Task: structure prediction
Amino acid sequence: MESQLIFLYVIPEHIWSNYVDTATEFENAEMIGSGPFKLVDYSQNEFVHLEANHDHYLYNPNIDEVVFQTFENQDALVQAIKTGQVDMITEMPATAVASLRGEPNVEVVTGPPLAPEVTDIIFNMTPDDLCPEDGVCSGKKFLQDRNVRLALAYATDKAQIIDVVLLGLGTPGLTLIPDSMGIWYNDTIEDYPYDPEMARQILNDAGYVDTDGDGVRESPDGEPMNLRMNWPSDSIVAPRLAEMLHTTWLDVGVNTELQALDPDTLTSVCCPTFDFDVILWGWGSDPDPGFLLSVMTTDEIPTGNSETGYSNPVYDDLYRQQQVELDPEKRREIIWEMQDIVHEDLPYIIPFYTLAVQAYRTDTFTGWLTDGDKLALFDVTSLVVIKPVQ
Result:
């Protein structure tokens, strides 16, 4: 219930009463809130200026104001904390971590993100009988064969991907439920190790062989195993991830044709159009796993939430059960079973979960919360306790 209420925002009666008899979208342009800071001024894509509400009923901040400044260039952002232009940064390229760790008066911290994100390798496995009315459903038919998806899982070197793409700042992924979601994450699942020999054996046994000696296998019906691989053009990690997958998958006889697409175009070919083979993308998570679990249900194939066209009646039934289960432990057991099922069925390969990487200056403010369950220096939990360095 708490995770649902977090998206129901409280509006003062003297404002909301003006809309009580009409259906409307309240834009809250004045940023009316109830927190320990209130809006002073903002300019879109430039800055947000807050001042402390020292009369707040729970928290009296030790500082007087906060300015969140937007940097379009990540190098400029990193330089800003080095020079003291800013006191704290929340996003940076992984390549900047080493230089910042050697910078005087700058502390780099890592940990589980406040809102966990999931990077996924999405297979279009939509069956013909579930193709939406307006769908294209052009995914390669051999992707509907679990043997192929299993072989590609064995041909995915997650450890190397984390080292190269994230410079070690991540953990291997298992399912759409990330490891920083606490009790909902099934940590008992045994992952598929990187084993190209196993991948080749699985494909050989299933009848996928390279009949013409060009290095690319053909399916039993003669279709070359060439996959279109797309990703959003604004992704920092996807290009390198795509290159690495191309290398290790081709090593077992599956070729990929790589192409970045702008996010709107990628959305249009994804879902519910299903006009793709493989997409590298991701999800952000709610505090509760319910939504991420829902995208793998049959009901979501025509809505655009399902990216894979995955359908499993047993999974669907368990999803409905966990929706109404009031006992937290029983609900956890159901959700863990659902993760077992999808990890076995492989509609996705989850290469990694990204750690939050943030940094702050030690010579301006002290008291940042860095050792909790979540790392979020920008969150109110840190901003109400930090103090100026004397």
Q: What stands out?
A: The two ends are 43 Å apart (CA to CA).
